[in-house]
Amino acid sequence: MYNPELLIAEAYDEGVVSEVIRPAAIIPEESARAVLVELAILDVHNGGLWQSEPTLWSRYDGPWEAYGSRGSAELIGTIQVSYGSPTRYDITIYRATVTKFGTDNGWTVVKLCDEALAYGDLDLASCPRASLNAPPKPFRF
To answer: What are the respective helix, strand and coil percentages of the chain, to the nearest 5?
Structure first.
């Protein structure tokens, strides 16, 4: 998703908090399905607070006024995800960002992730994690 507001805020570091989740959090298949269903039900176009896309989940402080027009709704933060990783039906969370508006209103990366993960009966602290492999040895002639 192209989000110029978030891009500009990150470029100027105006109170944006962005955190790489290491090791990445893995949402198992059953929980992933529950999370995706809830995010769809709570979509900003249906009076909810979330906009979910295949690589980015965005949390707003209110629903959008019309389709494609967020109106006065402010972006709280985003969660970058990867579907089908590490296995076909899992979802990996690898980065989360909270906007200045979000931090000014008490949001943190953990709080943002925990809200989305709660739909699958998980939280960031107890979510399964990806295994980190040792980096490959350097190639030498």
So the answer is: 30, 30, 45
Instruction: Please report where in the chains the tokens 């109106």 appear, as a residue.
Output: 71
User: Is the pLDDT score of 8 beyond 60?
Assistant: no
pLDDT in tens, 88-119: 889 999 999 999 999 999 999 999 999 999 99
Which residues are within 8 A (CB) of 83 and not within 5 positions of it... i.e. 6 or more apart?
Answer: 54, 91
CA distance 4 to 21: 23
Sign of the CA dihedral with 18 first, then 24, 25, and 30 last: positive
DSSP conformational letter for 49: S
Answer whether the bond into residue 28 is a cis peptide, omega within 30°.
no
Query: 75 and 6 in contact (C-beta within 8 Å)?
Result: yes
pLDDT-based confidence at 2, cuts 50/70/90? low
Q: Which residues pair with 79 in a beta bridge?
A: 57, 96
* pLDDT > 70? residue 4: no
